[in-house]
Amino acid sequence: MLDFVIAWDWLSFAVRWLHVITAIAWIGSSFYFVALDLGLRQRPGLPAGAHGEEWQVHGGGFYHIQKYLVAPAEMPEHLTWFKWESYATWMSGFAMLAIVYYAGADLFLIDPNVLDIAPLTAIGLSIASLVLGWLLYDTLCKSPLGNNDTLLMLVLYAILVFLAWGFTHIFSGRAAFLHLGAVTATIMSANVFLIIIPNQKIVVADLIAGRKPDPKYGKIAKTRSTHNNYLTLPVLFLMLSNHYPLAFATEFNWVIASLVFLIGVLIRHFFNTMHARKGKPYWTWLVTTILFIIIIWLSTVPKVVTGEPRASAVAETFVVSAHFPAVRDTVLGRCAMCHAGEPSFEGIHFAPKGVKLETDAEIGEHAREIYLQAGRSHAMPPGNVTQISPQERALLVAWFEEARR
């Protein structure tokens, strides 16, 4: 059992690393091609069918790029597809969702003070939200509403606000933010897998067959790609939000998540406008700053919690251990000055990552993290500021391993 816990934590690290690598590749190519597309210029003498061109310099060389709005006259000898970055990002992200939040549903996915549901029910709701989120988005894009980009974006934003509110009334705060990001990321990846790439394959098939491709397929793919571009920054924040309890663990967390979407869209609008050489709308940064100040203020509103925290069956296993009285003294003496509702350690105003270790139930719920962070490794306390001794670390290890047997 000990080997399994350590191996599982390393598996989580490996999948997280893979997710970051693939996300960087996907976001990088997405940002590049949108900037390239917006910067294209037309000139007399372009080849037949060419929509625009751009000269770029990088890495000591010059690049001459031309875009064909529909397709070139014949199939190029070599064609590079940009799709695996998206697929690998989504698959690694879902794997991480399963490893961290599904396998640790009692700790990370469910908060009994929000909604007391069984782990399997929570996991079912999680998966259903990913599927239904895509179906709703895709249906709206294919409806008459999809012909009006501004109205479509307003309706989609209203849906995202509703999802933010709904998730914070079903899952724990950190899981709610992650699921809002996961739904959005699923929409983005499904856009690539189910719309953009299939449309491009239709164009390629027409070229091979000697037919003139229908320009509607490129137009649809371009629209979905633009949606992905504007959704990228909010998704990045939501995926990293578990490090910021002031965002996910406060009373108006769903409002904060909703405002983050606006901030991300405003920042992309600034850069997209600049790349298109249509000016530099610095007003977007002013609005972004105002929204961020509002978020800071919202995070200071005390969270209203009803009911007493309920220790899970797993937590109770650690609480009844013979080692627990000594472990409790160690945790309260070495950890609880920071991990508390009102931290007493100078400079710490909120429990790091929202983790509180003041009660038996809280210590039991976080047994695995205590074991890995302060027992098996010296990550906690940071710099050993509370001077936890090797004997106390050994006690934490013995406590966890004995209770897991």
Give the key terms.
elongated, single chain, two-stranded antiparallel sheet, 2 domains, 405 residues, 4% strand, mainly alpha
The helix content, as a percent range, equals 55-70%
Helix and strand composition category: mainly alpha
Oligomer: single chain
Number of spatially distinct domains:
2
- Which sheet architecture does the biggest sheet show? 2 strands, antiparallel
User: What is the strand arrangement across the widest sheet?
Assistant: 1-2
Strand percentage lies at under 5%
**Rg, Å, rounded:** 25 Å
Shape: elongated
Number of strands: 2
Q: Provide a count of the helices.
A: 15
Gap from first CA to last CA: 7 Å
SSE series: HEEHHHHHHHHHHHHHH
Calculate the mean pLDDT score and round it.
87
Would you identify the regions where 5 or more consecutive residues have pLDDT less than 50?
none
Structure overview:
The chain has 405 residues and is mainly alpha-helical. It folds into two domains: 86-307, no CATH class; 313-404, no CATH class. 64% of the residues lie in helices and 4% in strands. It has 15 helices and two strands. It has helices spanning 2-39, 84-102, 105-109, 119-142, 149-167, 173-209, 215-240, 245-248, 253-275, 283-299, 313-319, 324-334, 360-365, 367-376, 390-404; strands spanning 50-58, 61-68. The protein has a two-stranded antiparallel ribbon. Strand 1 (50-58) and strand 2 form a beta hairpin. Helix 14 packs antiparallel against helix 15. The N and C termini lie close together (7 Å). The relative contact order is 0.09. The mean pLDDT is 87.
